[in-house]
Design a protein that fits this description.
The chain is of the alpha/beta class. Helix content is 41%, strand content 16%. It has a five-stranded parallel sheet with strand order 2-1-3-4-5, with helices on both faces.
Amino acid sequence: MKTFNVAIVIGSLRKGSFSKQVALNLQKLSPGELKLHLIDISGLEMYNQDLEESGQEPASWKQFRQEVLKHDALLFVTPEYNRSIPGVLKNALDVGSRPYGHSVWDGKPGAIISVSPGAIGGFGANHHLRQMLTFLNVPAMQQPEAYLGNVHKLLNEKGEIANPATLDFLRSFMQAYASWIEKD
């Protein structure tokens, strides 16, 4: 059995982030062939092409790109802001996609889990992110899709997923993802 290193990119910076809580649960629910590592995007400076072209790229960009390159696959766990992804996640996608022709995302298999306190589970963010991943040449797993609505009701006070049906769903999602990575 081959082991795959999977970068988890969380689209939220909030201390009590539901996305981060879900991501931490995924580390425990994943099959043994997936080694999940959280990638910190909180220190990424905003992308500015002038810095790239002048050779003054921030150290945070270089470190982030090197970190993503070490991974075989990508898992995005994100909330929805205004029917899209949070700006911090968009910035990470931009930083990782540059300089032109040297994208760290290129060809890495991806999956998306969107979360929301609302009923539709971040549907807009999930699909908007899929559009961007298509352009970045990140093949995103199509099925099963993962939208965790009413996420605040799925987590207990310790941040653990307390709903048995959700635990079962996420286990099957991660198993499907592992199988899909292996085929990719």
